[in-house]
Amino acid sequence: MNDDLVTLILKLAKRRDQRILHEFQRVIYQPFHLRFHPLVFELLPPKESGVEFYATRQAYRLIAPLMARFPQQGNLPFPRALARLNQQIGQSSITRKLLIIRQSPKLHFAESSILYLTTQLKQRNIPINWYQMATDVKYWNASVAERWLEEFYVSHR
């Protein structure tokens, strides 16, 4: 699986380019029509591609700041990482946030919950598979949200 943004941020983290990573972190606080950092803007598909352009832009708007805060590549998909987190701290807030995500028809309704859960994973140093996360976010729909919830419960057992 390949995603140019994930690869770029992992390279920046390896180079320890804190200035650009900090710029990416600020993206989460920008309005939806934000201007991307030129490095990210170059990775977007052509605007003429319509749905693909807007889906990728929305996914990158969420992934760039999250990854810039926690640029450690792991092999756990997001829901399995959350199951590990839940085993460590046993908080029902994780399940509640996942249910909020599951009920979110559009990605932007789920963003604050994803941000909260990613912050919790960072605090416990549980790495995420960012390539899988980028793909899931880019192609967000009810079936992705349902799969996340199902994987969480299966991994939780």
Descriptive report:
The chain is mostly helical. The protein has a single domain, classed as Orthogonal Bundle (Peroxidase, domain 1). The protein has 9 helices and no strands. The chain has helices at residues 4-15, 18-26, 38-41, 51-69, 78-89, 92-102, 107-123, 130-138, 142-156. The protein starts with a helix and ends with a helix. The mean pLDDT is 78.
Features:
Peroxidase, domain 1, mainly alpha, 0% strand, globular, 69% helix, 157 residues
Largest sheet: none
Strand content: under 5%
Structural class assignment: mainly alpha
CATH class: Mainly Alpha
Per CATH, the superfamily is: CRISPR-associated protein Cse2
Brief write-up:
By secondary structure, the protein is an all-alpha fold.
Chain-wise SSE layout:
Layout: H1 4-15, H2 18-26, H3 38-41, H4 51-69, H5 78-89, H6 92-102, H7 107-123, H8 130-138, H9 142-156
Helix pairs in contact: 1-4, 2-4, 4-7, 4-8, 5-9, 6-7, 6-9
